[in-house]
Amino acid sequence: MSTVSYYTAEGLKKLRDELDQLKSIERPKASAAIAEARDKGDLSENAEYDAAKEAQGMLEMRIAKLEEVVSNARLIDESNLDLSKVLVLSKVKIKNQQNGMEMNYTLVAESEADLKTGKISVTSPIGKGLLGKSVGQVAEITVPNGKLNFEVLEISRD
Questions:
Q1: Gap between the Cα atoms of 116 and 55, Å rounded
Q2: CA angle in degrees (0–180, nearest 5) for 142-144-147
Q3: With CB atoms counted within 10 Å of each terminal CB, which end of the chain scores lower, N or C?
Q4: CB–CB of 102/94 below 8 Å?
Q5: Which of 88, 106, 58, 86 is nearest to 151 (CA)?
Q6: CA 102 to CA 120: how far, in whole Å?
């Protein structure tokens, strides 16, 4: 059973670009490596051939996985999103109630998550805990080293 994932236009384009790259460039490279290894003689004792076949198998698995993700991807219409609650694509300013530290995050699909740019997955513990919260509400989030309380200070969109 496949699950539907929601993506921004940018995130979906990245997925499709990667899939195109794998199909149009990496797949022919893998076939060429197998052909080259096959030309080197006895296949029963040819480690290079075995390695090339294994690499091709891994590549085909990655392509199949990406095709499934792309086929189940749904584009998010950002114009219809509710600003009163934390949802996918919400920019959220939160305050850690234990230490007073304020942080800004954008909630995105799992494949678009990048902590360096402040994008966290909606499937992460913090992302799950913030979903559906409104400004002023406190999210109690269980993380590996205990419970954290985050107050939602602001919700916005780009």
A1: 31
A2: 30
A3: N
A4: yes
A5: 86
A6: 15
Is residue 149 within 8 Å of 140, Cβ to Cβ? yes
Q: For residues 66 and 16, is the Cβ–Cβ distance under 8 A?
A: no
Q: Are 139 and 152 in contact (CB under 8 A)?
A: yes
pLDDT (0 to 100) of residue 29: 92
Angle between helices 9-21 and 47-71 (to 10 degrees): 150
Low-confidence ranges of the chain (pLDDT < 70): 1-2, 43, 77-82, 158
Tokens of 157: 């969109």
- Whole-prediction pTM value? 0.61
- What is the longest distance spanned by two Cα atoms in the chain? 71
Q: Are 152 and 92 in contact (CB under 8 A)?
A: yes
Helix spans in the chain (H)? 9-21, 27-38, 47-71, 125-130
